[in-house]
Amino acid sequence: MGRKPAKSKEKRQQRKEEIARISASQAVVNKANNQEDPMSPFPVFRKFEKSGLTAVLECKPCGSLDGATLDWIFDLEKRNMKALYEACEWGWNEKVKKEEMTDDRAWYLIARTPEPESKPVAFSHFRFDMDFGDEVLYCYELQLEEEVRRKGLGKFMLQVLELIGFSANMKKVILTVLKHNPEAKAFFTALKYTIDETSPEDNVHEQYHYEILSKMNKKLLPS
Ligand SMILES: CC(=O)SCCNC(=O)CCNC(=O)[C@H](O)C(C)(C)COP(=O)(O)OP(=O)(O)OC[C@H]1O[C@@H](n2cnc3c(N)ncnc32)[C@H](O)[C@@H]1OP(=O)(O)O
């Protein structure tokens, strides 16, 4: 066989570069997942105090949560989200949701009232993961008990997620929001989340009941 045409050589080179880029991104994700406590560099963010609410934050991998906390997490998820899931084609599948929420890759940011009560009042399920070839912090859930909403705790927790994600060199913080959850949409918009490039666009054949929002890590944006 003769020499390969220059074009296929170029393509091979591009493929090689893409594979190298993806494996470098995967290494960044692995490093983030190997942390013991992603909040440890930010001790001042462990305490939230505003609008008469005091909360203490902790960040743990799913595997190290106790049974009572996991039960509360799933119960709050169900109280907040079941009806919204049932109102669209996702539906509510308890088994599938539990599997997702207890996946080995799941991390949790949890806010509790101060000791001795230590009652959990809010959680975020998040992951350091690859998404369309990019390293991201994916916020799967941000859920607050009704009595602690509109006091700035959600904003504080999302900012902590950004701090954790960006300091671990994730390209963006990304999340999925249901279009028929206007309160959540208003919240993420207020916090400057915009439609991500991977968010599906409605067309004549298909309409989507969700959108994907993100905030980029400015530190990593090309100048
Ligand atoms: C990726 C996902 O998890 S999507 C699902 C999100 N979770 C839910 O829908 C569960 C139920 N809701 C909640 O848990 C909470 O209300 C959250 C997470 C949506 C918001 O957290 P909160 O602590 O209540 O919001 P916070 O007080 O920090 O609000 C920050 C800003 O967001 C906006 N905002 C928050 N809630 C609302 C709302 N209901 N309507 C309009 N704007 C809102 C406001 O601009 C607000 O600032 P302001 O209070 O100074 O006006």
Automatic annotation (TrEMBL):
Region (Disordered), start-end ranges: 1-35
GO molecular function, one term: histone H2A acetyltransferase activity
Coarse class of the protein's main subcellular location: cytoplasm
The entry's keywords: Acyltransferase, Cytoplasm, Lipoprotein, Myristate, Nucleus, Transferase
Catalytic activity, reaction form: N-terminal L-seryl-[histone H4] + acetyl-CoA = N-terminal N(alpha)-acetyl-L-seryl-[histone H4] + CoA + H(+); N-terminal L-seryl-[histone H2A] + acetyl-CoA = N-terminal N(alpha)-acetyl-L-seryl-[histone H2A] + CoA + H(+)
Any one Pfam family match given in the protein's UniProt record, by short name: Acetyltransf_1
EC number: 2.3.1.257
Biased composition range(s): Polar residues: 23-35
Compositional bias ranges of the Basic residues kind: 1-14
Family named by the database record: Belongs to the acetyltransferase family. NAA40 subfamily.
PANTHER family named among the record's database cross-references: N-ALPHA-ACETYLTRANSFERASE 40
UniProt protein name: N-alpha-acetyltransferase 40
Organism of this sequence: Coptotermes formosanus
